[in-house]
Structure formats: C-alpha cells, structure tokens
Amino acid sequence: MRMSTSAQAARLVRRRVATGAAAAIFGLGVALSGGLTTAASAADATSYSGIVLGVGANETQRIVTWYSSGDTAQKVQVAPTASIVNGEFPADAVTVDATGAANTSTTGYNRHATITNLKENTGYSYRVGSEGNWSPAYAFKTHDFEGDYDFLFFGDPQIGSSGDVAKDGAGWAETLRYATAANPDIELLVSGGDHVESANNEAQWDAFLAPDQLRQYPVAATIGNHDVGGKSWEQHHFTPNTDRSSQYYNGDSATRSGGDYWYIYKDTLFIDLNSNSYVNPADGSLGGDTAHVAYVTDVINKHGAEAKWTVLNYHHAIYSPASHSGDGDNKQRRKDFTTAFSELGVDLVLQGHDHSYSRSYSIKNGQKENAAEQPGAADVYPGPGGVIYVTANSASGSKYYDIKKPNAADTDPNGQRPDPLNPDSFWYNSVQNQEHVRTYVKVQVKSDKLVVENIRSGTCAAPNAAVEKGLSCTNTADGQPVGSLVDNVTIHPYNGDGQAIQVNVPNATGEFGWTIDGYNGLVNLGTAQEHDGWYFEANGKINPIVVSDSRFSLAPWSISANVSDFKDGDKTLAGSYLGWSPKIVESGAGAQAGAPVVSGYDDQGQGLAVSRGLGAADQGHARGTAKLGADLDLKFPNEVAKGSYRATLTITALSS
C-alpha cells in the first residue's frame, strides 16, 4: 500500500485572469485556447510534425517527442491551461530544453524532452519549438495520483499492411476516436507494437501519428517486428528507464531500435520488452530471452514492492490463437518466459502480433494452473504464480489473422494441442475470437482486482480496410454493435494464506482552492454609454469563481482581487474607475460576500485598483463548495480617448 499525505500550512495562491475595457468597446476576461499556431519568423522557418505525448517514469512526468525540419535549439513549453490568457502562455511557463539528432530514415531531425513535476488533477497545455516559432498547443490532464484508474490497450495498427495507407489510417483514427470518447477518463494508451507495415516509411508513420489523441493522452509504445530494421520507431517514441544495450534488441547498431523499459503508474509496475530479440548473440554472450528475463527480474526485485500490480507488455504473443501461434520463436518464448514470470509474481501480460483476440487461462510455469477453470469464465482466481496472457486484435482493420485449429496429435507441452474443455480452442486459451472487426482492450485497475474487456470499435462496415478489400466478416451490427463486449473478465489476485487489509488515507488536512467556473471566456462589458456628456458607464459580471474547502481544520479563508489599469496601446484608463458588488451565486463552505466597492469616479477613491474582498469564511465554517460572483460597474470621465481597452484582474486566495 502506498499512502500520501501533506500538511497544509498558510499559503497564498495567486492566479491571473485577463480583464478589459474600452471607451467604445469594453471587455473583461480570458479566452483559453487548446491549439494556437504562431507563424515562423523569416529567420526561423523550422516546422514541427509527429508530436507525441509519451508516458514518463511515473505519474508526474510526460515525455514529448517530435520531428522538426531544422536543426535548431528547441524546447517544450508547458503551463496549466487555466493560466493561458487569450491563447498566450504566461511569462512563468516552464520550458524544457530538447535533445535529439538527425533522422536516419528521412530528412529532418528528431527531438524529445521530459516534462516533470506535474501536479495531480490539473489540466496542462504544451507546445514545442522556440520563441517566436511554436507549434500548435495541445492539452492533457493529470488525475489523482492514487487509486483506481483505467487504461486502453491496442493491437497492431500496422498502417500500410492492407496496401492502402489512407484506409488503414482511417480505421486506426476511428478506433482511437471511439475508444476515448467512450472512455474519456482513461489515463494511458498502451500499444502492442507494429505501428506501421514498413519501419522507415514515414508516410505510414504520418498516418499512425495523425490522431490528436496521441497528443492528449500519454502513450506507452511497444516495438513490433514491423517496427524494427530502422530507427524511426525510436525517433518517434522516446521511452523512460530504457536499456538500449545490444542484448535487448537485434540488428545492426545503425538500424536497431527500441530496448526494454519500465515505468510505474499509480500502483502498477509496467515492464515493456523488445521481443524482437529472443536468441543469444553470435558471440556467445547472453542476450535475447535470457537478457529479457534478467531485466524483468532486476526491475521487479528493485521496484516491485512499490506497486500493487505487475503488468508486462511485449509484441510477440506466446499464447495466441492464429497464424503466429505455432511459430518456432513463440514456442521458444513459452519455454523461456513463463516459469520466470510465474515466479516473479507477474499478474497480466499484454501482447500483439497475431491480429486476433485471446485471453488465456491462468498459466503457471507454462501450464494451465487449474484444470477445472472453465472456458470464458467471467471471474478468475489465479493462485500463486498464475498469470493471465491477453492478445489484442487489430485496432485499425488493416490485417486480421484467422484462428487456427488445434492439433490433437501434438504432444509438445508447449505445442498446439486442443483444450479438453473446448476442443476447438488451444489448451491455453479461455477465450478466442476473430470476427474481422476492429477491437481494443480496456483494463480497469482497481485496488482488489483487474477487469479486462475486449470491446468492438467497428463493425463490418468501413473503415475496415481488410474487409473493404474482400475479406469476409461475421459481425452483425445489430447484434454486435460498436461498443459491445467480445470478452469481459475480472481477475482476482491471490493474497496468500492470510487476509489482505487495505485502507485509503485521504489528505490529512483536506484542501482549499479556487477555479474559474467552466470556460474562462472574455467578460465583455459592451459599449460604454455616455451620460449627459459628463461620464461613460459600462456594466457586466465576472466569470464566477468556485471555492472548494475540504480541510478538517475549518480554518478561515478569503478571496480578493485587484485590477490593473486598462490599456489600449499607449492610451490608459485608471483601474480605480472599476467597482463591483460581490454576491454568493451558490452557497457553501461558509462563504459570505464581500462589501460593495463603488467606482472611483463616484467617491474619488481607488475602486478595485487596490485589493478588495470578493468573499470569505470565518473560522469553524462548514466544509464544502461555494460559487462567488460579482456585478461590475465601470464609470469614467468622458474625456477618455476612444479605443478598446483591456486590463488584468488578479485573484488572490488566502487561507491559514
């Protein structure tokens, strides 16, 4: 069990909200943007492509990878989305220098940079490039760093394998679109490898990388056999904690790509292997499967205690139902991997390669653990050393492999004999499926179980390149529509001879904070109205502010604000002319509205040019949430020059 608590001392939180006014046209507020393009200057015409948001070493990190047309100094810039004003990143936005080199498979250069120190439950925006020449901005959000979460697993998009890159790309994009729309709060996208048909075909990579979901959710990439033979995979996916020693991948050093890597996300230790290397090097040194087992053993011994679950991911499915199930290299991996995985306490293994779906029985030391486990069981209870192996079907529809028939004469313990409980399936598989429709796998990671679902993301209809090109299809949209389940299983862990006891510990003091309610759009005061030739006046409302206080201390809090001068070029309108009338829009958290403040035009005072209270709560108030608002009154002399004026309202939260 991992627990996190934090003592909360007095703190001052400052956030900036844009405001504005005009003698002719007035406005107050901020417009947030998820994708702004800044034109390249004549001196720097570098363009950026293939941007990918990759998984980091833990929840607080993301690795961003991209291609650039120029060999220039580049960086990632990141800021909380709430701090972006009119599409402009704030002056204190974090920048991280990028590293990279020239591309080996195409012209241009590759870059990557690691974003660190992310906060939980926060929306961020980021862009790549350099000052004056940034890429569009993309947004992602972090979640609670403790507790349950879901991730999605995708098998073999293999863009280009149908012979039609556009159709393959359309199927892949549609799976990502549907899967993330149906599961908007998923936290990781995990691949099973074979992203493209030809390792160095950048047109295929462009189609694979086209969906914006790969810039909005962290991607944990796996290298497949179609991804090796060139450096493109590695140039598009820079991974954390990676061992790129020669024993972890094969081929010439100029073209080999990938490596073994690991990361921890919440309570899960993920280990990703480059299964393209499975034999010892010609020089007799240990490599391939032996090296992979050593790597997994070392990582679990060092970091297994930090996690509740251990999940392995590699491309070559060792317990799959279709064309590759009888391959000699996969039979060899059944001998090399399975006992080690059982002894190390691996819970789940995710695989690709065979373009069909399967879920194994609980496998221990290379054999079915419990002879009585029934085919298709909705709940499984692996004993000590029991491991579930899942093979993902095609996520793009570019290629499907049909399920093979078992061989009753096969006496090899690692071979293809039939299942005594279901003779049409291999002995090791509880579920096998191939309908020639796109699917993906959803994994729900909970404190006491794993839930694995294989979900249809398509039907026989387009986009489904292999079927469009003549392959048969057994799916019926009426009976098996998009979103329907192919398989659903709950994996209950083995807790030893005793009883596992768990407790979730919340933040010891609770939390206090504020946010803008909903979209932080421009507060437009419209056109000021002239009054008897003496003064102009305009009115509006601030964007409501939501205050949340869950602290056990019931300490007092207050929200205040002050406004800068309004400006239009070199023309100025004093902020003291702005007044307001605070109000409680929704009661809670002991909130009381601040006192009204009149425009400085009326009393020759300072109006909102000095800090004024919007709302507050006394010691001992109830915990909860409140929504604060205020009516704005801007009144100023009629000699102010015509223009469109804007200012900045600074919100300050104070708690003890």
UniProtKB/TrEMBL annotation:
<keyword id="KW-0732">Signal</keyword>
<dbReference type="InterPro" id="IPR015914">
    <property type="entry name" value="PAPs_N"/>
</dbReference>
<dbReference type="InterPro" id="IPR008963">
    <property type="entry name" value="Purple_acid_Pase-like_N"/>
</dbReference>
<feature type="domain" description="Purple acid phosphatase N-terminal">
    <location>
        <begin position="50"/>
        <end position="142"/>
    </location>
</feature>
<dbReference type="InterPro" id="IPR004843">
    <property type="entry name" value="Calcineurin-like_PHP"/>
</dbReference>
<dbReference type="InterPro" id="IPR006311">
    <property type="entry name" value="TAT_signal"/>
</dbReference>
<feature type="region of interest" description="Disordered">
    <location>
        <begin position="401"/>
        <end position="422"/>
    </location>
</feature>
<dbReference type="Pfam" id="PF16656">
    <property type="entry name" value="Pur_ac_phosph_N"/>
</dbReference>
<feature type="domain" description="Calcineurin-like phosphoesterase">
    <location>
        <begin position="151"/>
        <end position="357"/>
    </location>
</feature>
<protein>
    <submittedName>
        <fullName>Metallophosphoesterase family protein</fullName>
    </submittedName>
</protein>
<dbReference type="Pfam" id="PF00149">
    <property type="entry name" value="Metallophos"/>
</dbReference>
<feature type="signal peptide">
    <location>
        <begin position="1"/>
        <end position="42"/>
    </location>
</feature>
<dbReference type="InterPro" id="IPR029052">
    <property type="entry name" value="Metallo-depent_PP-like"/>
</dbReference>
